[in-house]
Amino acid sequence: VVIAMALLANPSLLLLDEPTTALDVTVEAGIIKLIREIATKYQMTQIYISHNLGLILETCDRVCVMYSGQAVEEGSIQSLFGTPKHPYTHGLFNCIPLPKTDKQDAPLVPIPGQLPLPHERPIGCTYGPRCRAFKGGVCDQGTVPYERVADSDQFVRCRRWSEIRADDLIPDREGIKAATIGDVVLQADQLSKYYEVESKGTMSATMLGMKEKIQLKANQELNLSARQGETLAIVGESGCGKTTFAKVLLGLETSTSGELIHDKQEVGGTGVQQRSQAQLAALQIVFQNPVDTLNPSHTVGAQVGRALRKFGITQGKKETKEKSLELLAKVKLPDEFYYRLPRQLSGGQKQRIGIARAFAGHPTLVVADEPVSALDVSVQAAITELLMEIQREYGTTLLLISHDLSVVRYLSDRVVVMYLGRIVESGSRDQIFEPPYHPYTEALLAAAPIADLRVKKRDIVLEGNLPSPLDPPKGCPFETRCPRKLGEICETTLPPDLMAADGHRIACHIPLDELQDVEPVFAIQQSA
Ligand code: SF4
Ligand code: SF4
Q: Of 489, 526, 491, which is closest to residue 511 (Cα–Cα)?
């Protein structure tokens, strides 16, 4: 509707400011396709403002990278994504979980430091204090010119671009030791959560004051498990039931039937008010938007200290302050942050406080609900690495809820794909990202933009919306949108769980050997 309104005056230029940021990947893919078709038809120029490099690669012809109020690099998509020149552009690519990254062998490389405030910009190159290629006497002199790169369509604002190699901008690091995976700490067995809602009913029933109750099946017969030290990702579109599952786990809702065992205790039927202090401390959450969870009038120290006392970790003032400072150091914030108020913190610093509070009670399981999606690209890498570092140290299980499949591929050990309240596929990270796929997983993977020219993806755009959970399809939950639907059997009969490999389940009527023959959604070419 908003796109239609913007097009009413038949503009020659359309400005799109983060047009798909809050949308599911499948909806995002549909919107991108629509905008492209309209722009081609009406010969309209578009300017995208976005931090999503994958989206830019898939939609734009040219790209301009800005830093601290200046254009620092510009060029065609092919040249800038193929041979970036400016250290900041390299830094952005090193911050995002592309297929070449690996949480153990090739981890993300956060950009050090902070963006300078407009009145504190340094002399010379404004990126100088954060640049790994900074050279005194060269980079800190006068205004850095914006030069055209010879024999290229690129422009770059860097004095040393011709000397810099991409590898020079990655610090030497040893590979990171994998987290130790222990025993099962979370087990859901036929777990269901239904809500009772009033149906509109017939007119006569309404006139007689008889309102019919119907069930909204938010989670249906979920079976999943997670081990100590493991990262289990739950993915799916909004309304698939992943948030309801997290709410039941945290005690914000109680289950309707089935079992949910955490640390050998049934927690699905126990609301947060009935849980013991130890149970509350053992299950914590890192929220998507840390701003909403911090009290604006209390200092960081008071808020971290409160979590420590609430979980019975510390008693007196002195001990609480010492432990609070220890926690701040764990999340890499210096002591002076103890006295700061939330408004004095950047988005990334607020998320560090959110992580410090979540880990204050030594939890065995932390729900990470879209933990980096509200942050800038350069901050996302630092927070992702911090979460993993603390997870390794404490041996905590992470339950990652995310719609960003790049983050899921990078962080997770195992993945559960949900659709309309049911699990449609589950398996190890590699099993989920390679055939055989559930047709819904296949569409999700195809919809996710990837900021790498070498990656060639198949084009699958899902039509239609998620059906209402008040009136779900009788057979397969995905049958109204499935591009591979077989026919009547999909409409009438719930599909069986096919065991594709050890620990890899796919709920579909298509025989396994046919799913195995499906072409991979993406392939990485050796040269762009
Ligand atoms: S001018 Fe120097 S500090 Fe600035 S980006 Fe280039 S190498 Fe880095
Ligand atoms: S059971 Fe049928 S509708 Fe469901 S995913 Fe498989 S092919 Fe598609």
A: 489
Domain tally, the chain: 3
161: domain CATH number is: 3.40.50.300
pLDDT digits (tens, 9 = 90+) for 382-400: 889 889 989 988 899 999 9
User: pLDDT, tens digit, for every residue of 326-373?
Assistant: 999 999 899 999 999 999 998 889 999 999 999 999 999 999 998 888
Q: Which atom of ligand 2 is nearest to the CA of 476?
A: 4
Q: Give a yes or no: residue 38 inside a domain.
A: no
Instruction: Check pocket membership of 369 for ligand 2, CB cut-off 6 A.
Output: no
What DSSP string runs through 134-168?
--TTTTTSSPPP-EEPTTSS-EE--TTTTT--GGG
Phi/psi region, residue 238 (left: phi>0; alpha: psi -120 to 50; beta: rest), is: beta
Q: Ligand 1 pocket, 131 CB below 6 A?
A: yes
Which of 88, 134, 157, 168 is the best mutation target for the ligand 1 pocket, counting ligand atoms within 8 Å of the beta carbon and taking the most? 134
Closest ligand, as measured to the CA of 438: 2
- 121 and 247, same structural domain? no
Residues near 22 by Cβ (< 8 Å), separated by ≥ 6? none
The answer as to whether 84 is a domain residue is: yes
Nearest CA to ligand 1 atom 3: 128
Q: What is the average pLDDT value for the chain, to the nearest integer?
A: 90
Q: Is 111 in the pocket of ligand 1 (CB under 6 A)?
A: no
pLDDT at 210 over 70: no
| Residue to probe by mutation, ligand 2, list 492, 510, 515, 518, most atoms within 8 Å of CB | 510
Residue 40 lies in a domain: no
Q: Is the Cβ–Cβ distance between 496 and 528 less than 8 Å?
A: no
